[in-house]
Amino acid sequence: MELPFAESYKIKMVEPIYRSTREQREEWIKEANYNLFNLKSEQVYIDLLTDSGTGAMSDKQWAALMTGDESYAGSSSYYNLKNAIRNIFGFEYFLPTHQGRAAENVLFSVLVKEGNVVPGNSHFDTTKGHIEFRKAKAIDCTVDEAFDTESLHPFKGNIDLVKLESVYSSYNREQIPMVIVTLTCNTSGGQPVSMQNLRDVTALSQKYGVKVVFDSARFAENAWFIKEREDDYRNSSIKDIVAEMFSFADAMTMSSKKDGIVNIGGFMAMKTEELYKQASVFNIMYEGFNTYGGMAGRDMNALSVGLDEVTNEHYLKNRIQQVAYLGNRLIEWGIPVQKPIGGHAVFIDAKHFLSHVPKEEYIAQTLAIELYLEAGVRGVEVGTLLADRDPETKENRYPKLEMLRLAIPRRTYTNNHMDVVAVALKNIFDRREKIVRGYKIKSEAPIMRHFSVELEHV
């Protein structure tokens, strides 16, 4: 008999969580103006809002934390991280920042100008926000299969080369500062990009003289799917796959709070000294001196270890299988999800789950609130609220996918917790016909509104 799957770690420390009553949750979510971001952490039983900075660090990371060098300039922790980035990604130049959106802010301050267009595969919220804040335009070139949740295409994060070349040929070269490839593609459901697609995107971009930038928050999960789904890489190590992936990039941004398995931090890295010097000006202005940026020495030490651990195949197998465990339980009950299951989260197809709720009443947000009321589980809407308003018309943008994302923190919850989430969704699914109205906006910010929006029930 084959031995069953078990986690590749044992638990050394625990944190208590509180299981509230439905009456309490009804009061709390109303006080939060039906915005799950406004809830206090102690009001949440199982928190799947994000996998960003919410994972559990290892004993080796905690040990590295204690030996951090907090020198303002030239700390040993900076050089530990520099060596890790060089060894894993192959980039000689890098700048630390306090998190991923800060790296975007610094890099885009160099590259993105008013009137520019930035193609990519379903840019995530902060990426699109930084582009549109600079009065530029993000153009989605994701393959069409990504928007069919039932399709089993193995690489739904891929960029459609025909769409990309259409952008390249429709605009002047000076208007296109870069193409952004998000690994894995969060907005399309944590879906991977194939090595062949990375190779093809780079070849096409070089033909038109366009820089290739990777949004690398979940690079290791992407490498795992390449190993599992591309025949040429089945016998390759994760570290070798990562090295080849990043050989196709001119630069990268990284939210280290995901596949760095740390609670804070980020960086950008690049091939050329010229781009490094240009970005350094903004990094010093916005983040800090180049050898610490927005990070403490102890956090750079922990990240150095985390980048090594995340490329360990035993860790990745555990990580991917837990996400698949939750997804497969939902599929067994007929609950509509993005297939195949992605790397960091399960994405519920809210349009098909709550088919009676009008799109103007924020379907995925409605489902997210129902899940919180049912079991104290906090997910996040990846739909119309996140898509924001068109900068020119000020009208809502209705994306092709209206999703509830259940992002699973790394090394944090057990499969018993996943069972609670699955049963809660099954209970809602069984009474879905009774959910016919959603929410309307009371107030919203002019950009990235989903973080602070205030809603009321229709």
UniProtKB/TrEMBL annotation:
One Pfam family this sequence matches: Beta_elim_lyase
Q: Does the keyword Signal apply?
A: no
Q: Provide a GO biological process annotation.
A: aromatic amino acid metabolic process
Tell me the GO molecular function terms.
carbon-carbon lyase activity
Cofactor(s) named in the record: pyridoxal 5'-phosphate
- Domain Aromatic amino acid beta-eliminating lyase/threonine aldolase stretches: 47-423
Gene3D superfamilies in the record: Aspartate Aminotransferase, domain 1, Type I PLP-dependent aspartate aminotransferase-like (Major domain)
Q: Which InterPro entries match?
A: ArAA_b-elim_lyase/Thr_aldolase, Beta-eliminating_lyase, PyrdxlP-dep_Trfase, PyrdxlP-dep_Trfase_major, PyrdxlP-dep_Trfase_small
Q: Which family does it belong to?
A: Belongs to the beta-eliminating lyase family.
Q: What PANTHER family does the database record attribute to this sequence?
A: BETA-ELIMINATING LYASE-LIKE PROTEIN-RELATED (PTHR32325), TRYPTOPHANASE (PTHR32325:SF4)
Q: What is this protein called?
A: Tryptophanase
Q: Which organism is it from?
A: Draconibacterium aestuarii
